[in-house]
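Sequence only, no structure available. Ideas?
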Amino acid sequence: KNSKKNSMDNSFILFDKKISISNIKTFIRKINNVFSIQYLQKNGMKFSLWKTKEIDFLSIVLLYKFLEYSVVNKCFYKPTIYLSDEVKKTIKFYKFHNIVTALIEGNDIKDEFNSLKIEIKDDFIIAPIALSQKKIITNEQWNKNLLPNIMQYYHDDIALMIFQFFIELYSNFTSHANDETRSIMVAHGTKNWIEIVCIDNGIGIVNSLRDIFPRMSPNKVLEKAMCKYTTSKSE
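Reply:
I predicted one. Tokens follow.
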């Protein structure tokens, strides 16, 4: 019975009171079947975060990606989504409000996506940055738009290290993403730590390394991916 309640075969999905990195597996399990219903336009689906009183940075990004995937791949027909005031507030704080609202209403997110920009808040935030090969960010633009903000917030040495990390990450996206039109990089943190989440539409780490580690489980492949010198490149 419990498995049926957590399945997309059921028309109602109720999310936990707290959604964070500590229980992210439960969140992913509840939305996992979306990948098996492409173009089915399942009718009558209801998703409730009405009882969710706390949702963290990573979970907001995953919620966006779940909605974006289901809309692009026409998984549901006019689904109903309930968001608590706390979830709405957090979505707005991380600058996903316009995009998430457009997805829920079934509207095109192109304008909202292209309007994303770097922004500094009380704690250091880089609002979602649209990553696109059609709109390459040059080193000059990085230096002009990003570096001064980082330098203003962090100590010089730390600032340069974080800056180089962003450039490397961005370069990796533009070099390897299969479909970069809705790829996003988001950062958030304080002077003591920084958290960065990146989402693209590539084939994924496990699939890219499948030929190299054909007999390994997905979890083991991910562990190997974190090891030095592991690469999917032939050279």
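The two ends are 50 Å apart (CA to CA).
Hope that gets you unstuck.
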